[in-house]
Amino acid sequence: MASGVPLTLIVGNHDLGITFGSVHARLAEALGPGTLTVYPWFVFQAGRVYAEHGHQHHDINALLRPLKPMLEGAPRALEAPLAVVLEAGLRQMRATRSPGTGASVVRAGLAWAELGSALTAHLARLSSRARRRLRSRYRRTVLPSFAPAIGLPPELLVALDQISNPSAAGIVSRLAVKAARGLLARPRDGAAGTRWSAVAARDASYLLHAAATIDSVLARDGRGVPNYVFGHSHLGESKLLPSGAHYLNPGAWGDDTDPGRRYQFVFIPSSTGAAGLLMTWDDEAGEIRSTA
């Protein structure tokens, strides 16, 4: 940044606080001189790339209003998606584990009951009339204000926003199927947990589906791009969409799953229409190479 290279941050579900002006300012100050731009939803560059974090297409992480993730009537409080409720409940249940005591059984039962109540309440809100009214007003008033910054017309932003529309029934069904697959894929006879990895990989297909749908919506308006870049799934992938455009995901650097310190990233050429590449930085070798 100090040398004049601009930095663009696309907000994900773990860093929604950056959308607060005060947090944005503190981050810019900490990074030092240079140009920092924060996009709360996605970035679009005509003829080159569409990029977003991807949580908006993950039903348990999707937000009601990605450009305005604050609670209605509480501008300093962030919306908590279903994943936050699940994680808090599971954390509480893990804390109650103390085998061999009657008290631990009671605490675990209470934790399960509390989690079930919280999930039921959250799922009920997904289909509430109040929630539908909020999103309708958001599409009429907030999305148009984002149009000039992103370079797309308001009606196209509404069409993109409509792609993410999680339902209580859909979430319950998906989680039930995932749980069943997980039980069937459980390693047996000391085998490595490769089946669990396969299940996780299949679960990331929602991003590939989202990319294809976004590509279709943009292409109908004559604004399709050759590259669709996502994160969120923590799975590095490079795949072709039905249109021939590229879906690219660099995975995650924070998992520490690679002892060789090899980090994937996406390179988008500056020329219009060029295909992006999934690349790897090998920290030990000090070199960059294309990821097969």
Descriptive notes:
This protein has helices at 21-31, 82-95, 102-126, 129-141, 143-150, 154-161, 168-184, 194-203, 205-220, and strands at 7-10, 36-39, 42-45, 49-52, 70-71, 74-78, 227-229, 236-240, 246-250, 262-267, 277-282, 287-290. By secondary structure, the chain is of the alpha/beta class. The strands form four sheets. The chain has a five-stranded mixed sheet, with helices on one face. The two termini are 30 Å apart. Mean pLDDT is 85; it is low at 189-201.
Q: Percent of residues in helical segments?
A: 40-55%
Biggest sheet architecture = 5 strands, mixed
Strand order of the largest sheet: 3-4-7-9-8
Strand fraction band?
15-25%
Q: Any idea what the shape is?
A: globular
Contiguous runs where pLDDT drops below 50 for at least 5 residues = 189-201
End-to-end separation in angstroms reads 30 Å
- What average pLDDT do the residues reach? 85
Count of helical stretches: 9
Number of DSSP-assigned strands: 12
